[in-house]
Amino acid sequence: MIDGAIEERPPTLRPLPGFVGTLALVLLSIAAFMFFDLSLAAIDRGESAAHAASSYDQGLRLLRSKNPDAALDQFRIAVGLDRANVGYALALAEAMLEAGHASDAESTLTVLLTRTENEGAVNLTMAHVMIREGRTNDAKAYFHRAIFGRWGADSAQRRTQARFELIQLIQEHGTSPELLAELLPFEDVSPDSIALRRELGSLFLRAGSPQRAATMFRSVVRRDSTDADAYAGLGEAALALGNFRTAKADFAEAALRRPDDTRLRGRVAFVDTVLALDPAAAELGVDERYARSRNLLARAIAVLGRCGESPDAQLSSARELLAHESSPAVRRAAGDAMVAAATALWNAHSSRCSAAASDEALRVVMGQLAG
Amino acid sequence: MGTSGTTDVTNPVAAVGPRSSWLVRVTGLVEDLRRREDRLALFLSLLIGALVGLVVVAFILLTGRLAAHMYPPGHDSSWRRVMVPTLGALVTGFLLFRFFPNARGSGIPQTRAAIFIEDGRITFRTVVGKFVCCSASLASGIALGREGPSVHIGAGIASVIARRLGLSAPQVRWLLPVGASAALAAAFNTPIAAVLFSLEEIMGDMHAPILGSVVLSSTTSWMVLHLVLGDEPLFHVAGYHLVDPRELLVYAVLGVVGGIGSVAFVRLLLGLRTAFAKLPRSTVWIQPTVGGLCVGILGYFVPAVLGVGYDQVERALGGELVLQAVAVLAVLKILATAVCYASGNAGGIFGPSLFIGAMIGAAVGHVAHQLFPATTAGAGAYALVGMGTAFAGIVRTPLTSVIMIFEVTRNYTIIVPLMVSNLVAFYISQRLQREPIYEALARQDGLHLPTGEFRRLARQFRVSSALQPAPTPLDIGLSIVDAQTRIANGDFGSWPVVDRRGLAGMVRVSDLAAAIAEGRGGVTLASLLDEHPHDDESPPHVHADQPLGLALSRMGASNHTVLPVVSRANVRTLLGVVTLPDILRAYGVEQASDLAAFDGEHRD
C-alpha cells in the first residue's frame, strides 16, 4: 500500500458510483459514531461527576467524624471518577495524612504538584506532610511555595495563615534570623488587627527584635489603653532593650489593669530584682555602685561555680578581686573592675553553662552590660 | 456555458455549467484516488483509523454503561455477582452459537487467520457479533479483556470496507493490520504499542512494508479517542524509580516469578480448552455459562475478580493492596480468565495478562520491600513492572510490552527494570512453554498460521548460505574463442565478465559455443554482452542477504544457472557466485540425481 507493498493493480475495483457510495457510507458512519460517542461520553462524564461529588461529600463527612480510613475510600472513588479535580485529590492526600499514611499522601501530592505546582493549597498540604515526616527544611520550602502560590478566594487570609504556620515551625525548628525574616512582611500590617499586632509583638520579641515588638505593642496600647497584655509586652520589650525602669512602669501598668494576675505581679517583682542588681543604674552613689558590683561578681562566680566549670585564671582573679574589701577612695575604680571581671567571666562561660540561665535577673543585667 | 451563448466544447467544465463543474472536479479527484494506489492507501488508512477509533470508543463506553446498569452503584449484592455473569454468559453463549460463531474468543488468532488464510475476509456479521457479545459479556463481569476483541473488530471493519470498495485480496489482507492497530490504539490508549503489536504479533514481521499505513491509522484513531474521551492515561502511576542498582536483582526475580506465572496461566488455559473441546458438540452453546458461573462464584467471595479489573490494577499500582490481597487476586484471576476463555466466552486475554502481572508484581514487591526496605521501591513499582513482565511471558511480544507499559503509564523512569524483568520472563516462558499462546490457540482450532519458528527458518535461507567463491572472471576484451579456452575445464553454466570498473555481466557457456559455431569466435565478449542488454544498468545479480527464493526467481528470469553475488555498496564488486545446485543443496536436496531418485520412489 503506502510503502509499495502491493504492486498489482486492483483488478476488481468497484465502478465509480459504488466506490463513491461506499466511501460516503463510511463517512456517514464516522459522523454517526462521532455523534453517538460524544453523546455517550457526555452522559458518562455527567454521571461520573455527580458520583464523584457525592463520594467527596461523604468523604468530608467521614473525615469530620474522625473516620479518615473510611473517608479515604470515598475520596479515592471521587478521584478515580474525576481526575481533573484538584480538590478531590487534595482531600485524598489530607485524608491519607490524617490516617497516618504520610508517604502515600506524599506520592499523591507529588503527582498532583506536577500539574499544579503553583497551587497554594497543594503546597501547604505537602508542607504538612513534610512536617509529619520530620523533613522540616522541605516543609519550609513548601510553606514558601504555598505563601507565594495561587489561592482562590480569601487569598490574603490563606497566605497569612500559611505564613503563621511557617512561623510556628520556625519557632520550633528554626533560628531567630529565620523567624525575623518571616515576620518582617507583617511590619506594616493594618492597625485594625489588634490581636494580630499583639501576636506579632510577641513573635518579634522571640525573634530578637524588641524595638519592632515595642512598636507593635505601642500601637495596640494606642488603640486600646486597657490592654494588659500589650502593656506586659511593652514591659518585656523594654526589659530586652535594657530600659529596666520603663519595663517596671509598663509591667506596673499591666498589673494595674489586671490586678489578679500573679504572673504580672511576678514580672514587676522581677524587674525590681533586676533594678536592684543593676550596677549601671543612674543616680547611684559610689558606695551603692560598689556594693552592687561586688554583689554582681559574687553571683556570677556562684552561678558559674554551680556549673562545675574548671577553675581558670579568669575565675581565680575574679575571686581574688572579691576577697579584698576596697577602701572608699578606690571604690569607684574597684567597682568598675568588678563589673568588667563579671562581664568577662560571663561572656567566657555562660554559653557553656545552663545554670547561668537559671538566674534570670543576673542574665538580664549581664546581657545589658555585655551589650 | 459561454457568455456568448455558444457552448465551449473544448472546455468540459464550461460545457456542463458551474454546478456540474464541481461534480466533475470531485469525480476527477475520486477517479484519481482510485487509480493511485499510494493515495488510496493513505486515504483509507485515515478513514479506517477514524472509524475504527470511534467504534472502539463506542464499544468501551457502551460496555461501561451496560456494566453500570448490571451493577448499579449502591445495589451491590453477593447474589447479583453470581447471577449476572452466569446469565450474561448464557445469553452471549447462545448468541455466539446461533448467530456469530466466528466472534468467540479473543479475536487476535482469528485476525491472523483472516490475514494468512482467508484472504483478509472478516464478515460484517462477525464484527457486529464481536461488538455485541463482547460488550454484554464484559459488562456482565466475565473476567476477560476488551483489547483482543477490539483488534478483531478493527480488522473486521477494515476488511469490510476494503471488500466493499472492491480491492484485491492482497490489498484487503494488508489493510487488516491497519484496522487492528487503530483498534488497539483506541482500546488501550497506546498508539506506539499498537503499531508494534500489529507488526510484532499480528504480522510477525517488524519490517512489514505496511508500517506507514499502520502508523497513520493508529495515530488517527488515537486522536479520535482523545477528542472524545480526553487526555488521560489508562493507569495513573506515581513517579517510581530504581531505588538502588541492586534492586535490579529483585526485578530479575520478578521476571522469574512472572515467567512461571505466565506459563502456568497459558498451560491452564490451553488444558481447559482441550477439555472443553472434548465435550459433545451439542453443549457448545451452554459451555460459556460454565465460565460465567465459575467467575460468579469467585466473585461472590472476591468481587475484584469480576470484569477486566483495571480499577484493581490501578490500586495495585498505587500500592494500596496488601500482600494477601494481591496474591489471592493473582491466583483467582488466572483461574477465572482461563475458565472464561476456555469455555468459549467472547473476550480477550490481553487485559487479564496485565491484571495478573500487576498482582504478581505487587506480591513480589511487598515481599522484597519487607525484606529489603532500604534498597527497594514500594509494591506499586513492582506491580507496574509486573504488568509488562506477564505480558511478555504470556503474549511473547517483549518489545511491545516495554513500550506499552511506558505508554499506558507515561512513566519512563522504570524502563530499565522493566526490560530486565521482561527479558527474564520472556526467556523462562519460551523455555517452559514452547508455543506462544496465540499460535497455540490457533493450532487448537486447526489453523496452522505462520509461526515465529517458520519465520526464523525462512530467514535462514539466504543467498549467503549458498554462496561460493567466484571463478576467475573473464576480461571483457577477450575474444570469444579465448574465453571458451579459458573456461574449458570449468563447471559453471555462466561466467562473470569484468571490465576495468568491475563486474560487467554474465556470459552463458552455451552462448559462447553458439557464437563460435556461427563463425564469430574472433569478436570480443563486449560485443556478445551488447547482444543481450540488461533491463537496467546492472547485470542480473543478487545480494548475500537476499532470500534464496529471489535468487531462483532471478535465475528463471535471466536464464542463467549462475548468478553473481555482489556488494550492496557497489554492484560491480563481485563477492562470489550462487549456483542452482548450491541452492538445492541449501534446501536439503543434495544432488540433482537425488531429485530423480526421490521422484522415482514416490512415483511408485
Can you describe this structure?
The complex is a heterodimer of chains A (about 375) and B (about 600). With about 375 residues, chain A is mainly alpha-helical. Helix content of chain A is about 75%, strand content about 0%. Chain A has 18 helices and no strands. The longest helix of chain A is centred in the first third of the chain and has 49 residues, at about 15-65. The radius of gyration of chain A is 36 Å and the shape is elongated. The termini of chain A are far apart. Chain B folds into four domains: about 1-30, no CATH class; about 30-230, Orthogonal Bundle (Clc chloride channel); about 245-445, Clc chloride channel, CATH 1.10.3080; about 465-590, CBS-domain (Roll). Chain B is about 65% helix and about 5% strand. Chain B has 25 helices and five strands. Chain B has helices at about 10-35, 35-70, 80-100, 110-115, 125-140, 145-165, 170-190, 190-205, 210-230, 245-275, 285-300, 310-315, 325-340, 350-370, 380-395, 400-410, 415-430, 435-445, 450-460, 480-485, 510-515, 525-530, 550-560, 580-585, 590-604; strands spanning about 475, 495-500, 500-510, 560-565, 575-580. In chain B, the strands form two sheets. In chain B, strands 1-2-3 form a three-stranded mixed sheet. In chain B, a hairpin with a 2-residue loop joins β2 (about 495-500) and β3. Chain B is elongated. The model of chain B is unreliable at about 1-10 and about 600-604 (pLDDT under 50).
- What name does CATH use for the topology of the domain at 184-277 in chain A? Serine Threonine Protein Phosphatase 5, Tetratricopeptide repeat
Determine the number of helices of chain A (DSSP H or I, runs of at least 4 residues): 18
Whole-angstrom Rg of chain B: 31 Å
Average pLDDT for all residues of chain A? 85
| Computed Rg of chain A | 36 Å
- Describe the main β-sheet of chain A briefly: none
The rounded distance between the terminal residues' Cα atoms of chain B is 80 Å
CATH class of the largest domain in chain B: Mainly Alpha
Provide a count of the helices of chain B: 25
Quaternary state reads: heterodimer
CATH superfamily of the largest domain in chain B: Clc chloride channel
- CATH architecture label of the largest domain in chain B: Orthogonal Bundle
Q: SSE order of chain A in H/E notation?
A: HHHHHHHHHHHHHHHHHH
CATH topology title of the largest domain in chain B: Clc chloride channel
Distance between the termini of chain A: 91 Å
Strand content of chain A: under 5%
What is the CATH C-level name of the domain at 184-277 in chain A? Answer: Mainly Alpha
The secondary structure category of chain A is mainly alpha
